[in-house]
């Protein structure tokens, strides 16, 4: 199972960790949210936890808890700028539907496996 980063995403992660003055990686997780069910959560991690999986591309690391890997497998994280806005954006093949506002999504996996989120 794997998650990849574009060069733009890697540069943004490195930039933000440099601004913070510390940090190991970007932590990616899922949370129940919105009208479709789930949303991505991003935070900067200062240490590795026991159940973390580490992915490194272009000298930047992302951490994902082992429980979330099946929901993110095959995903690519990019960093995009649109006008004055900029954000991390996922291309995730495990998404079944997204809500109208684009803030939340539902997953293709069974409801039983989603109980870990």
Automatic annotation (TrEMBL):
InterPro entries: ATAP (IPR016092), ATAP_core_dom (IPR000361), Fe-S_cluster_asmbl/transfer (IPR050322), FeS_cluster_insertion_CS (IPR017870), HesB-like_dom_sf (IPR035903)
Lineage: superkingdom: Bacteria
Xref: Gene3D superfamilies: HesB-like domain (2.60.300.12)
Domain Core: 1-103
Any single GO CC term annotated in Swiss-Prot or TrEMBL for this entry: cytosol
Pfam family membership, one: Fe-S_biosyn
GO molecular function terms attached to this record: 2 iron, 2 sulfur cluster binding
GO biological process, alphabetically ordered: iron-sulfur cluster assembly
Membership in a protein family: Belongs to the HesB/IscA family.
Protein name: Iron-sulfur cluster assembly protein
Source organism per UniProt: Nitrosomonas nitrosa
